[in-house]
Amino acid sequence: MQELRKHVTVGSVGGSDLSKIKEQLGSDAETAYDYLFSENGLVGHKAGELIHTQSIKKALGEEKLQKLINFVLRYVADLDIPVKRGTFIEFRNGMLNVSPIGRNCSQEERDEFEKYDAEAKVCTLHSL
Asked: Which of 35, 94, 103, 115 would staple 42 via disulfide (CB 3.0–4.6 Å)?
């Protein structure tokens, strides 16, 4: 990438937050690229300097965000599914990561839920 930067402007965009991107691309990720966008582009850096940020909380406002989170928690609580393990909503700057079976489940439980969901369609929006 550094050789490419000698000829063109180089940027990197990732879905993870900045700390995770640094784990993946190196601790110098903010300066190793001309532009670095984390959290699906909601946080932008140019030459190591923060140039913009946006968040779901800022866009929706706390009241609407709380209503959405409460709806999701009620929906997940009422699901009759094979397993539920740990954190069901992970708040991120630009999204809510919702896992009906929970973020703490094992890979085997995830695989089983994927098979179950293909039939039951728990994660399909029209079932809301």
From this structure: 94
**How far apart (Å, rounded) are the C-alpha atoms in residues 39 and 33?**
16
Span 24-42, pLDDT tens digits: 999 999 899 999 999 989 9
Report the alpha-carbon distance of residue 65 to residue 58 in Å, rounded: 9
pLDDT of 128 above 60: no
3-state secondary structure of 6: coil
Residue among 104, 99, 103 nearest 117 (CA): 99
In the structure encoding, which two tokens stand for residue 38, read together?
């984390």
Angle formed at CA 121 by CA 106 and CA 114, multiple of 5 degrees: 25
Contact 99, 91 (CB under 8 A): no
Is this model's pTM higher than 0.70 or not?
no
Cite the beta strand spans of the chain per DSSP E: 11-13, 35-38, 43-46, 49-53, 89-91, 96-98
